[in-house]
Amino acid sequence: KAVMRKIADQVRAEAEQWSQMQEMLCQVRKEMEELQSCRDFWQNRALDSDSQIQNLHSSVEGWRRKAISSEAKLKNLQAE
């Protein structure tokens, strides 16, 4: 009888440990999903920022060409 009680206690203890492990696993899964969501958010922000930077570089290049063209026109007008 004592052996059966000991086995039953051990089974209960292992079942409790298993339950705790399952809870921890669920918590880890939840945290991983949150981390992936944050990663996706910041990755999208970085891609948007890269796109904006490229657009700004294009604008700067366009204004630089206009400035060079205007300087050339001014020199031509001054030469006349």
UniProtKB/TrEMBL annotation:
It comes from the Eukaryota. This is Uncharacterized protein. It comes from Noccaea caerulescens. The lineage of its organism: Eukaryota, Viridiplantae, Streptophyta, Embryophyta, Tracheophyta.
